[in-house]
Design brief:
The chain has 19 helices and 5 strands. The chain is α/β, with parallel strands linked by helices. The N terminus is likely disordered.
Length: 372
């Protein structure tokens, strides 16, 4: 028989048992019309949490009302009969806004995502098929946040973290539509951050640059696959279709009210300094600073990436092109700064993941929250 010497003191032991006990007494509501999904989630969480289930939205709302003092987290499938998951979570949020909410879906629809973020205070958006270990980790994180969220300010910070994770997820999903642009959004964001940091070290400014970089091409989710991934140069009609992604980016981003003017900034990243860009023909300082920064980073990455119709250009050739287009396509001052830091840009191009870790403002912000 195992005995414990009570004279031994272990740092954090009391806290460990407290957290373990909290987990075992935490109650989670699962709402899904597919019995196989319910069983898989129950097996994943079995022995760690108390589980309540419902097979559709109205039933889930009734279970929620009857167990308001117990439930700390809800996992809902998206596609269900009568009431979809986003509508169920919206109504659940009206009843219990502080309960953690997770949406499980087989779709990557930007409209669904923005609707869920705006209306449901969504904690996480998980695509199927999901990794049980990843689901368990997210649930554990959600339960911990529920237990620790004792103030509205902390809840708002959690929501900001959701935006960061969701934005990265959207940009990665978009890049995955075309093998030739894999990693494009992350690299554009990285180059934009490096360039922006030569102008200012203001945290909010750099956070805005990061979000704009990650979202600048979000409108391409509306472009037909045959145009987006055409193995060759676009004809005139296809080029006009492709140009619509800027306006679509604005429409999608402005639906997320917490992002403020971001819609205007992502719309303008194809404007040119001399006024010949699109969609509005803005000129010079009429173009938002954020858009001018992303425009240079976007063009550099486009030139130094292999496309279906050509091989990647060298770093040196791309820099010469930016130098040549300063004052016509690009803000001349920003183009000069980009040229001055070209060695750092080249290093980042060769190892974007590592450099993104260094320059990401949002990653540092949320890591500092969880690791004080």
């Amino acid at each position: 028989m195992l005995t414990i010497d009570k004279s031994l003191q272990f740092e954090g032991l009391d806290n460990f048992f407290y957290v373990a006990n909290e987990a075992m007494t935490s109650t989670i509501l699962l709402v899904d019309d597919e019995i196989n999904n319910l069983q898989l989630i129950k097996r994943t969480l079995r022995g760690k949490y108390n589980i309540l289930t419902a097979s559709q939205g109205e039933e889930g709302l009734q279970v929620l009302k009857e167990n308001l003092d117990k439930i700390c987290l809800i996992i809902s499938d998206h596609k269900m009969p009568v009431m979809e998951g986003t509508e169920f979570l919206r109504r659940a949020n009206e009843i219990a806004p502080d309960i953690i909410k997770i949406l499980l879906t087989g779709f990557t629809d930007i409209e669904i995502l923005t609707d869920a973020v705006n209306k449901c205070n969504l904690f996480q958006y998980i695509t199927k098929p999901f990794d049980p270990n990843e689901l368990l980790s997210i649930v554990e994180s959600g339960v911990e946040k529920f237990n620790l969220s004792s103030s509205r300010s902390l809840m708002m910070r959690d929501l900001q973290e959701l935006f960061y994770k969701t934005i990265k997820s959207i940009s990665a999903t978009l890049d995955a539509k075309d093998a030739y642009t894999h990693g494009h959004s992350l690299r554009v964001t990285l180059y934009s951050l490096i360039l922006a940091s030569t102008i200012s070290n203001d945290t909010k400014f750099l956070e805005n640059i990061e979000v704009a970089g990650l979202l600048h091409d979000i409108g391409k989710i509306s472009i037909p696959q045959k145009v987006l991934c055409k193995p060759g140069k676009l004809d005139d009609e296809e080029r006009e279709i492709m140009k619509t992604h800027s306006l679509c980016s604005e429409r999608l981003v402005e639906n997320i009210k917490q992002l403020g003017d971001m819609g205007l900034w992502v719309k303008a990243h194809h404007e040119k300094w001399d006024g010949t860009g699109y969609p509005d023909g803005l000129k010079g300082d009429e173009i938002p600073l954020c858009s001018r920064i992303v425009a240079i980073a976007d063009t550099y990455d486009a030139m130094t990436s292999t496309r279906s119709y050509r091989l990647a250009l060298s770093h040196e050739v791309a820099i010469e092109e930016i130098k040549k287009c300063a004052g016509t396509q690009f803000d001349p001052n920003l183009a000069q700064k980009f040229i001055e830091i070209q060695d750092k840009i080249k290093e980042a191009k060769d190892n974007p993941e590592q450099y993104y870790e260094e320059y990401s403002m949002l990653k540092k912000k949320f890591e500092s929250k969880t690791n004080p």
